[in-house]
Amino acid sequence: MIQQLIGKIQKMNAPIVVGLDPMLEYIPEYIKQAAYEEKGETLAGAAEAIWQFNKGIVDATYDLIPAVKPQIAMYEQFGIEGLIAYKRTVDYCKEKGLVVIGDIKRGDIGSTSAAYAVGHLGKVKIGNNSYYGFDEDFATVNPYLGSDGIKPFIEVCKEEKKGLFILVKTSNPSSGEFQDKLVEGRPLYELVGEKVAEWGSEHMSEDYSYIGAVVGATYPEMGKVLRKLMPKSYILVPGYGAQGGKAEDLIHYFNKDGLGAIVNSSRGIIAAYKAKGYEKFGESAYADASRQAVIDMKEDIQSALVKSGVVR
Ligand SMILES: O=C(O)c1cc(=O)[nH]c(=O)n1[C@@H]1O[C@H](COP(=O)(O)O)[C@@H](O)[C@H]1O
């Protein structure tokens, strides 16, 4: 799957991911009203609204982007109905040819991680049959529990030809509380990055590993160090746009081959119609505003990469 992701990034010349984090406050009133009329102001009504909203964005952007990243919490808050909307979104994006990164941030003791891995990336066995559960292409994973919490995910990825993005240095303001703590004189995120590089080197697919990392756009100096520590790992970079990450910060996350990083924007794309500069679209053309925001993001990153000499 990492090869498919890289192939799509190259073909579309777009190292970007659209984050499908559909909070109700971003959904146009007319979509919510129609969903509530059909299913009431209920969990099912909310789930219908987020599905319709997502479909609009995917239809308007799928020809420009290699991948999407649905964030499962935004669906889980609506219980089972929300999870059904998550699964509908995953399936629809795959039908449209998009690579789906399930932002599930799981990780537990080995046996529990194995169940998460089976449910999201692999197949569960029931008698003589086996079934895919959510069937995303990649998943985000939390490494706090150590190797035995990660290995079951790697095993399933190996079998299914899927991939992981392991949290190394997150984009949020408090990420340093634990991640930057010095351990034997070195920040913890560097030690985690080295471990990701080690797991990655054991699980290669041509030039890159299918074991990647998450490093936030909001810490570019750390990103620079981590890029060097994990040369074969793809880096998923959240934090561009709504969290303040700038295109010029992102150049550090790429390798000299112009590859190695894929940048996420969620609110900056899906709620573009509410943002400054996109007023002309209005609520009814929210999906066109998202399309324009994808084009703008792509140009912004491309021009920073060209300026810095990473790509020509
Ligand atoms: O794993 C992630 O995707 C992630 C890691 C991280 O360090 N920071 C981070 O913001 N994210 C996710 O990336 C998305 C960022 O959303 P926006 O800030 O709206 O672009 C959310 O889905 C976050 O959960």
Automatic annotation (TrEMBL):
List the transmembrane segments: none
Q: Where is the Orotidine 5'-phosphate decarboxylase domain?
A: 15-281
Pfam families (UniProt xref): OMPdecase
Q: Does the keyword Lyase apply?
A: yes
Is the Chaperone keyword given for this protein? no
**Which BP terms does GO give this entry?**
'de novo' pyrimidine nucleobase biosynthetic process; 'de novo' UMP biosynthetic process
Catalytic activity, as annotated: orotidine 5'-phosphate + H(+) = UMP + CO2
The EC number(s) attached to this protein equal 4.1.1.23
> Which pathway does it take part in?
Pyrimidine metabolism; UMP biosynthesis via de novo pathway; UMP from orotate: step 2/2
Task: List the molecular function annotations (GO) for this entry.
Answer: orotidine-5'-phosphate decarboxylase activity
The cross-references to CDD domains, in alphabetical order and at most eight, read: OMP_decarboxylase_like
Class of the enzyme per the UniProt entry, highest EC level:
lyase
The positions flagged as active site in the entry are K105 (proton donor)
Tell me the keywords, alphabetical order: Decarboxylase, Lyase, Pyrimidine biosynthesis
Family per record: Belongs to the OMP decarboxylase family. Type 2 subfamily.
Q: Do you know which HAMAP family this protein is assigned to?
A: OMPdecase_type2
What protein does this entry describe?
Answer: Orotidine 5'-phosphate decarboxylase
Question: What species does this protein belong to?
Answer: Anaerocolumna chitinilytica
